Fold this protein.
Amino acid sequence: MSHILSLITFIPLLGMLVILCLPRHQKDWIRFVSVFSTALPLALSISLFLDFENGSKGMQFVENCDWIRIPDYKLRIQYKLGVDGVSMPLVLLTGILSFLAVFASWETTKGVKAYFALLLLLETGMMGVFCSLDFFLFYVFWEVMLLPMYFLIGIWGGPRKEYAAIKFFLYTLFGSVLLLLAMLAFYFHAKENPNVLDPMDAFDLVRLADANVRLTFTGLFWQVVFVAMFIGFAIKVPVFPFHTWLPDAHVEAPTAISVILAGVLLKMGVYGLLRLSLPILPEAAAWFAPFMAALGLINIVYGALVAMAQTDLKKMVAYSSVSHMGFCLVGMAANTEAAMMGAAFQMFTHGLTSAMLFLLVGVIYDRAHHRVIKDFGGLAFQMPVYTGITTLAFMASLGLPGLCNFVSEALVLLGSFDAYRTTTIISATGIIFGAGYFLWCFQRVFMGPAKERYSMMPDVNGRELFTLVPLGALVVFLGVWPRAMLDTMTVSLKNVQDAVASATRGG
Amino acid sequence: MSLLDAYPLQHYLLVSAALFALGIFTLVARKNAVAMLMGVELILNSANLNFVAFSRYTVGNFSGHLFAIFVILLAAAEAAVALGIVIGIFQNYGDVDADALDGLKG
Amino acid sequence: MTTLTSALYHAAFYADMVLTVGSACVVAFSKNIVRSAFSLLLTFVGVAGLYGFLEADFLVATQLLIYVGGILVLLLFAVMLTHRISNIKASNETSFSALAALAATGIFLVLVEVGTKTHWDVKGGPLGESTRPIGLLLMGDYLLPFEVAAMILLAALIGAAYLARNAIRK
Amino acid sequence: MLESVVWPWLILLLPLAAFVTHTLCGAMKWKLPHKGDWLSTGAIGAGAVLSTFLFADMVSRGEPNFRQTWSVDWLSILWKGDDGQLHTRFALPMGFLVDNITVIMLVVVTWVSTLVHVFSMGYMHDDPRYGRFFSYLSIFSFSMIWLVLSDNLFGLMIGWELVGLSSYLLIGFWFEKPAAAAACKKAFITNRVGDLGMLIGILMLLSMTLRPILDDTSLPIEQKNPLSYENVFRVVSAGSYEVKSGDVFPISFLTVAGIFLFFGAVGKSAQFPLHVWLPDAMEGPTPVSALIHAATMVAAGVYMVTRCYRLFTPDALLFIAYTGGFTAIFAATIAVTANDIKKVLAYSTVSQLGFMVLGLGCWGYSAGFFHLWTHAFFKALLFLGSGAVIHALHSQDMREMGGLRHKLPITFVCMLIATCAISGFPPLSGFWSKDQILGAVLTFAMEHPQHALLPIFGFCGAALTAFYMFRLIFLTFCGKPRDPHKYEHAHPDQWDVITAPLAVLAILTLFSAGGTLSGERWFGDFVNEEQVLGPREEAPGGGERHRWHVQRTVLFPSGALVEEAQPLDDQNPLVALHAEGREEARKEHEHTEHKAHTWAMVLSVCVAVGGALVSYFTYMVPFFSPQVWATRLLWLYDGMVNKWWIDELYDRWVIQPLLLLNDFLKSFDEDWVDGFVNMTAQFTVHFSDYSGWVDNTYVDGLVNGTADTIVSSARAMRSIQTGNIKQYLAAAVIGLTVVVVLYNVIL
């Protein structure tokens, strides 16, 4: 049994313990330990990506042992890790972004030790969510990730950090409670029907998605459970109208945390739907699909329109995330091969581009100490390299071909048209609005005559380039050769899609 | 001859009680720390007397004697240390008035 | 034993008791600390006498040597070190006399009550010459307490020296 | 040798390599000699040579239908079948298709691009971002060549967007000018609106083509591409475009799909109502206007319509024809009053693109594309000529020009040639292509008298073209200098990198159409619908042209029945009926065509000469006074000068409401959606305040009461703690006494 997933998950935790043992003034040591303990999972997740067997239907790199076992209550919680085509790219994404986040926070001065310790704990939580194959374990990691995020926003954030952190925390906790209830529903269902599902397996996600088991999850009750889980995940995605924590959290969070937030945390909602809701409750998913499509549509158009009205650069980028995540929802609702691929690939591509965007916003905020779009202007003179990279990121975000977001969004649209024509057509207007706000913003920030007050602004430095260039390279590479990522996803997604499709036919 | 009947144990105990009471009085009433130490010595002597008396009358071996010896020994030590302290107090406060030493007053 | 010797013996015994208690009274009540100190000498001697009547010959010697020869001298030194010679007479005031009297009377009465009312199981007899058995015991059964006591003495000496040295330095 | 796929590859990748090199050197701060202009120019020059070889090879074959394909499996949707094998559900391979129209486009793009590169060496010489300009030109060349080479709609869309990006970058090249910054954004977004239409069109086509492909595991991978031209044409022609079980698409669906697809061309080729970006795009450097906004990129829409001609049903083509015709005359009216030399040319471009689209819409497959070919050269020449004028004079306003023919003789001659060409003077290239278009339009109108408006659009547009183009020549080059100061300081012409490309283009303008009637035939033979797209099959979706007319106008005058797909096989009585009528109709059509072309030739020369003469009498000989006519036709003049208020209309009815909507949604988001969240929080806080008060007052009151009692009693007892050791001692002793006494008393 390979322990690569455990290593990926817990090396950051180990790093955190090491950091906690270091004296607080040894800042360089703390940073180096952080680099090391994020670089190692990154290297491991790259090897995971390379060793991944594309054609395989099941879980790979599985680790399994009992964690908690109470025979009297027929309760068994497993320590079960494994990845398939849905989660492996996200593990890689988390590895990349966590590694870059360390560099993006290199110049943090306040509470360096606590900051990096929390960052590493956060990585453990995120990796755990993507790797775990046990509902309970999933839930534990889900909550583990919440706490460091709360402190990272609440301590190292902007002026309204307390408000944002508490809002984020409470909102997510609200979702978690619903998730917990859903989890209990499975357990008690198993207790009542031990012949279908052994209660000892009630938290095993692979077992729950088994064709024989999931067939028993029918009827109104499971629709309610689905909705509960959906709300739990929708808060993370975030789906309108549960999205308002996002702009606040993004605006207040420090740059690296915004990167993690947009790059990884938002993906957890979609990942949860793809891993839990759709394969386990396909019948309810088929029932809910039109609502999901409608919500995705609202996300796309509403997010884009609100983004256009923003005056704060970071808030605009935050709302653009709302808009882009809508494509994931539409794709999952449409439930065709192309749309599912698009939705899953959108998670990865949006992770890359939104991370880039937030890093770029961080760069300019470090220099100008404000983010008001209309107060900038003519920055292309002072910061040509920065302008070039921003152009790349903006163009990627507004879906320019040759860059990765185009592939995912095009796949979603190509796939959804058959299922939801009107929805798809209206969603496609999102790409106009996307072009609208990004280019308008670009015009106001970078074009026009050079302003005196920014004349001394230095261009991006080496450290910032180090965080931006790998992302930019990936954005281009996956735009030119998307198969590198798509081929890993396709079979696993087909499983999910088949589950829902058969439920749709059956219903 | 047996003097046991001649001098009953109670005699010794009476003397011992008197010494103890006087020691207590000295300890409580005297302001002078050195005088208080004398009270302590009285109390210790009364205790010793009891030890030896009981050893002679009721126990019938030398254990009481040995205790008395140890007490004397400790008294010597105590006297030495206490005197050191008294001198220290005197140096610090210019006086050895125990009433003035109320640093623990609540 | 003759009547005369017996009478003298009795007289000596009671005189010794009176001496002991009386001199202790002087210690307790005297206004002069030097007088108290010297009365204490008499008390110690009286107690030594009582030890004699209790046939504890080794203790008599110990009492005289250590108390009279050691502790008392220390006390006298203390008296002299803490008082200017000219001021000696006025240096032994009392406070809380009533409280002290109450406490002392109370405990005295209790002790007397206990001592007299209790039925003591008097079964022992004369123990004979005591020096040798005590020596054997100290080197035998009581070796550990003996050694500990030695350590305490040493520590006390060092401590006393340290305290006194500090005080003098100031 | 030329059949190898290496040559298209090279043509495509050389500019990309130049761009990558430029970008890398720029990022690394390496200095290229001459800022790398030779790199881009060399790359595209090599491309021009190669395309010429391809072109020559193709012509020399004598066999017009020339086809090369090559593809790479770019994106596949795989799944694992029950047999454990990975199957391709469908794929989007990226591939090349090199056929006649591709080669024509390649020649146009590479040659114009090369000449513009050379011109830019002079024109942009003093610009601080000279190197970057060339790198942008390279990425444009790459994108445009990609667009042209792609063998499927998806690839076309990729190229489509990439040229949009290059156009954005190049219009905004002087980003410090607020007008340029606004213009590039406007261009991109307007194009995106068109692209959205195109995307929807593609999605509609996809929904027709995808279903038969999905589950057929026997198909080879090339045919698994639902969007390759080949597959789309086949499915549309076969009429078997089922979507869901037995759900056959009606013709109107294909019509709508075609119109949506055409929307892409409306955006890219600046057709009404999305033409607004093109005049603004003149804020970019003039070579860019020549390359992108005159010759190549804006022609992409026309290319797309040509390429996907089979997808357009007659109804869709009618829509296209009206759009093109209206645009042709509409833009021409605006060009009449414009004073900025580049604006005149911009509206002229819009108008000429309208002509192309009109031609295509009126079944003039080769006519429209022919005009693209000739127009590319003479319009590039006009723009570069205007660039030469601007470079010499440092002004774009024609009111400050005049008499420049003495100072700029080479430019003058070249521009005059181009003006004659665009106005349609025989035997210049523009005459032949425009004549073809007008002939096709006239044929169409003669066969369908209800569409008589279309030739009126066409001929009026042609007359206006001659008028405003000669106005431009007269105002710029003839008469007396109106601004003597500027005239004095103008740099006189000499043979250098600025004038040389003009001369080359002038030669191309003269001879690109062959110069004679036979030349015209040559192009018509070379690029004609049946040759390029194959013979039309007899099916309702892409029904053969004349049969359509027969069906619509003869057999089913109402046209209503055709909306339902008819199973057209030999058993169908309609087919038999129609087979008889077809021969008849074809004869009739050829007759009409011949007649129409004769008339068109005469008429077009007449309107061209007429327009030029009116212009002469207005601006050279003050016979008509423009001022007087402007006041006489005030409403018309007002509309022309204000570009028919289209920009204002958009601003008032689209942009402002959109911004208002955005602001409203923003406040809705903040006040209502977020407000609800905050209200929930507030409510919780208030509730917890209340329960906190209860807790403090009553529950905690009990606890605190206990504690308070202890504290106060402790405070009282503190006085006992005197700190006097003697009192403690006395207390202890007394206490002991009391205990003993009590013990005795109690027991």
